[in-house]
Amino acid sequence: MTELSNDSLYDGRLQIRQSRSGYRFSMDAVVLARQANINANDRVLDLGTGCGVISLILAYFHPDVTVYGVEIQKNQADIATENVRDNNLENRITILHQDVKTLSPHHTSGTVDVVICNPPHIEKSCGRINPNNQLAVSRHEIKITLDDLVKVAQRMLCRLGRLFMVYPAERLVDLIERMRSCGIEPKKMSILYTKADANAKRVLIEGVKGGKPGIKINKPLTIHNDDGTYTAAARRIFGY
User: Which residues in the chain land under pLDDT 70?
Assistant: First the structure.
């Protein structure tokens, strides 16, 4: 049985259980959830939800949205389901234990307005694969590739629906190429830095299905000050 830790966000207003030794949600997931542009009454699809952290944050901050979280790993899907129940969000979040590649609008009662994803981002052929299978599947493109994910987003989004992703800066060209090949036009992007003098770590990108060409580059987002403390922008995101 997976040993779980009891964690929280936003002064304890969100309670989140997650594996102690397996995959644990990262800063990337929280930043993505808080930076995504979500509208009232949006129907949101969270691909690879893990313990459900992105779905939980979206439902907490946007009380009118409906969220579907999809997770291929049963133990993670079970944890996400418990987290949804523990936070009394069963009426707005549905967790599906399913391979996202098999998704169709039938599973979400129609197309969705938003697809959001913090996906595995290391190519299967690159780097050492963690012997912990849960960590390996969450980090490496073992069960799903970038190309697979963007194709799923294209299939599940309504016309002018939005895709939000966080991805390694070094793979930005791959991401944009895949999005455009599927008819999802990159429209907004933020560059994420751990510190102001560091190289870019991640990109946050928003694409629109069937959108017109033209991208807006937002102000960079820096997480830590030189002394290691959180910047004011990061504190707002993390609720400190």
Answer: 1, 121-143
CATH code of the domain in which 188 resides = 3.40.50.150
Helix (H, G, I), strand (E, B) or coil at 79: helix
User: Model-level pTM?
Assistant: 0.90
CA pair distance 57, 59, nearest whole angstrom: 6
Q: For 77-87, write each residue's pLDDT tens digit.
A: 999 999 999 99
Answer for the pair 29, 238: CB distance below 8 angstroms, yes or no.
no
Output helix, strand, coil percentages for the chain, rounded to the nearest 5: 30, 30, 35
Q: Is residue 188 part of a domain?
A: yes
Phi, psi of 108 (to 5 degrees): -120, 25
Distance, in Å, from the CA atom of 104 to the CA atom of 94, rounded to the nearest integer, reads 15
Q: Which residues pair with 195 in a beta bridge?
A: 224
SS3 label, residue 6 = strand
Residue 137 structural domain: 26-238
Residue 66 lies in a domain: yes
In the chain, the number of structural domains is: 1
Spell out the residues 6+ positions from residue 236 whose beta carbon is closer than 8 angstroms to its own: none
Residue 94 token pair: 């549905």
Q: How many CB atoms lie within 10 A of CB 7?
A: 15
